[in-house]
């Protein structure tokens, strides 16, 4: 029941644009019509490939009508063309371009629940290859490419917690396997995850209870605990963003109720 409602919200959040999508031209300040996609989709992923094409994968036409199919947008021709299909039909999944040029597809909703499955897209062959399972099923998680080439996957929803989970994991690009790391302080879904210049990842907002913001330091296992802040250690360190770290509060309504969003910036 809760999971069907979450997918319905996703439908409202992402409009289906069957035929009128087009590239934005910054210099001209206009939007030009493009040829239609091969399928009307919402909740899909779109990943820029090294050669300039865009991989569009999965999504749905309507509730419970999910796609395995994928397509490529070719900027040279302005047209969409078919490519290999995913192994699992999914919507609300994570898609990350790896340093190898391949695309990691992980998690997402599959009908009335979410999945822990993952796969890898190879642009040179146009094929998706199934990978080992994630540590837990995740719908709508964040996925952040780290400087070393691994991927931090955090939060999302699972079968029993459609409002969000706190767990996180790392996809190891060298072994193509997933490993658990320390959980976040708060359960989150529909949050943002931003790689900072110092290698940390800022996690902010989302739908859940008492959501603020926190940072992860995957490459710093020996973190120091700042004043009025809590730290969890495993393979990653999570710490709350507080006023002692020169943070400012920006109120924003993310689903319900309004949640505090924190950004690194001016001192309170």
Helix content: under 10%
Domain count: the total is 2
CATH homology group of the largest domain: Kelch-type beta propeller
User: What fraction of residues sit in β-strands?
Assistant: 25-35%
Q: What is the CATH domain class of the largest domain? A: Mainly Beta
* Individual helix count: 1
Order of helices and strands: HEEEEEEEEEEEEEEEEEEEEEEE
Looking at CATH, which topology of the largest domain would you report?
Answer: Neuraminidase
Structural class: mainly beta
Q: What's the overall average pLDDT, rounded?
A: 76
The largest sheet, given as strand count, sense and whether it forms a barrel, is: 5 strands, antiparallel
What is the terminal-to-terminal distance?
42 Å
CATH architecture of the largest domain: 6 Propeller
Q: What's the total count of β strands? A: 23
Spatial order of the strands in the main sheet?
17-18-19-21-20
Low-confidence sequence ranges: 1-19, 220-236, 242-268
């Amino acid at each position: 029941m809760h999971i069907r409602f979450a997918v319905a919200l996703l439908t409202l959040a992402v409009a289906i644009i069957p035929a009128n999508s087009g590239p934005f031209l910054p210099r001209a300040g206009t939007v030009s019509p493009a040829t239609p996609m091969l399928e009307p989709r919402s909740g899909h992923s779109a990943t820029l490939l090294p050669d300039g094409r865009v991989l569009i994968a999965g999504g749905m036409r309507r509730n419970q009508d999910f796609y395995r199919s994928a397509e490529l947008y070719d900027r040279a021709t302005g047209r969409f063309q078919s490519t290999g299909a995913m192994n699992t039909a999914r919507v609300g999944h994570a898609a990350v371009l790896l340093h190898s040029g391949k695309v990691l597809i992980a998690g997402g909703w599959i009908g009335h629940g979410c999945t822990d499955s993952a796969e890898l897209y190879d642009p040179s062959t146009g094929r998706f290859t199934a990978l080992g399972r994630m540590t837990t099923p995740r719908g709508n998680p964040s996925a952040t490419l780290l400087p070393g080439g691994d991927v931090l996957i955090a939060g999302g929803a699972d079968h029993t917690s459609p409002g969000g989970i706190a767990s996180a994991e790392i996809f190891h690009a060298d072994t193509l396997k997933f490993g658990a790391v320390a959980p976040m302080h708060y359960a989150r879904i529909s949050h943002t995850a931003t790689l900072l210049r110092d290698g940390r990842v800022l996690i902010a907002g989302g739908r859940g209870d008492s959501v603020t913001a926190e940072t992860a330091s995957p490459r710093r296992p020996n973190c120091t605990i700042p004043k009025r802040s809590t730290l969890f250690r495993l393979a990653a360190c999570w710490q709350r963003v507080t006023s002692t770290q020169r943070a400012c509060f920006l109120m924003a309504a993310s689903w319900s109720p309004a949640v505090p969003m924190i950004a690194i910036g001016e001192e309170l």
